[in-house]
Every structure is written in C-alpha cells, then in structure tokens.
Amino acid sequence: MKLLLVEDNERVARFVKKGLAEAGHTVDHADNGRDGMNHAVSETYDAIVMDRMLPGGIDGLAIVAALRQQGNRVPILILSALDGVDERIHGLKSGGDDYLVKPFAFGELLARLDALLRRAQPQAVDTTLTLDDLSMDMLAHKVTRAGRPVALQPREFKLLGYLMRHANQVVTRTMLLENVWDYHFDPQTNVIDVHISKLRQKIDAGFGKPLLRTVRNAGYMLTDQP
Fold it and tell me: Is the C or the N end of the chain the one with fewer CB within 10 Å?
C-alpha cells in the first residue's frame, strides 16, 4: 500500500516509517502541515497517518477536515498526545477514521492501519446463487442443475433469481408480480402460473428431487428441504 505519514517528531517519524516499510508499505513523509497538505491533495494514497499537532501553519485536523470537504475519503489514522475523550471525539468528528494516542506500540498502529485498509477495500460480490444441486451464475447468465445446463428465457431467469434469493421462504403472487413483472396491481391473468409451470419443467423434470413447490393458498417456494 502507498501511505502518507505526516509527523513532525523526527524520532517518531523514523520509527514509524521504518516499521511500515518493513511491513511492505511504500511511505511518503512530511514533517509539517503545509507539506502534508500538499502531499495529500496532489498524490493518491491508500491511507494517511496524521499527527494532530504540526508546525507549518496548519494542524492535522485542519488537513483532515479540508480533505473531507473536497470529497477525499482516504482512510486517516490520527496520532495525538491529547488523550481526553473530548479530544478523541473532536478528531473523529473532524473526519478521522481512527485515533491513536501517543505514546503507542507500533504493533497497535499497524493493526489499526491494517483494519482501516481492509474496510476501505471494495467487497467482493458473490454472483452465484446455489440451492442443492441447482446453481445460478448471475453474471454469466447461466443456470445448471446437477452440472447440466438449463436454458431459460429472460423472464424465467429473473423469476428463478428471485426465488433463489428467497429460498426456503414462501413467495406470494403479489411479491412475484411486483418484483419480477414490475406490476403493482393484479393483471388478472395466469402469467405467473404459466411461467412457474415452464420453470418447473426446466429445473425439476428429469431430476430425482423437485425443488420448486406450490404452497396452496399462499404462493410458491424453492426449497431443498423435505
């Protein structure tokens, strides 16, 4: 990760920079508020370690607040010798993501920084839905049952996707009309029955265990339960 360290204490800065480099990070360092601000707005960083009290005409919280006003959401860990509850609250409300009081153990700084970096990473989206031996790849737009491909029409695919996202739950006709057909009224047709029948033939016929069931006077359920 590319990090920015803004710290005016030479001993602390050397100690932190050395530890971060040993942990595999690339570190830029500024020893005053003005240079820290210039680095922060002109470069792209994965996270910033920001001392609160800085020389150079601008303190750490002012830099944090300015970055947030510009829409910069880079994770920021604030370092400060001010350990009062009100001071920590002020630091977090200024836009800091975490607040570490001096003196600190480097191991704790690294753990807190790693936590910030993990939270900042985009979460992987699972695009595959599965129920028993039925699998649906939402991204590739493919469905298989017991490893065999199942060819579905677009509306059937949307219907199955909704049922799979609500597996083992009763899905009413109203829910299907609103979420699969985008109807907010009952069209008084058998469109749902027709599509359910076609879908059942495609995903259940020829397989030993039926998954799509009709729940009398309630709706439908896709389930692998007895």
Answer: C
CA atoms within 13 A on the CB side of 208: 3
Do residues 219 and 202 touch, judged by C-beta distance below 8 A?
no
Identify any residues that bridge with 27 across adjacent strands, giving them in sequence order.
3
Sheet of strand 98-101, all strands in order from the earlier edge strand to the far edge: 26-30, 2-6, 47-51, 76-80, 98-101
Do the beta carbons of residue 103 and residue 79 sit within 8 Å?
Answer: no
Q: Which DSSP category does 94 fall into?
A: T
φ, ψ at 6 (rounded to 5°):
-115, 105
Which neighbouring-strand residues pair with 3? Answer: 27, 47
pLDDT tens string 51-88: 999 998 999 999 999 999 999 999 999 999 999 999 99
Q: Among residues 140, 111, 134, which one has the least CA distance to residue 202?
A: 134
- Give the residue ranges of DSSP H helices in the chain: 10-22, 33-42, 60-69, 85-93, 106-120, 154-165, 173-179, 191-203
Helices 106-120 and 10-22: angle between axes, nearest 10 degrees: 60
What are 104's strand-pairing partners? none
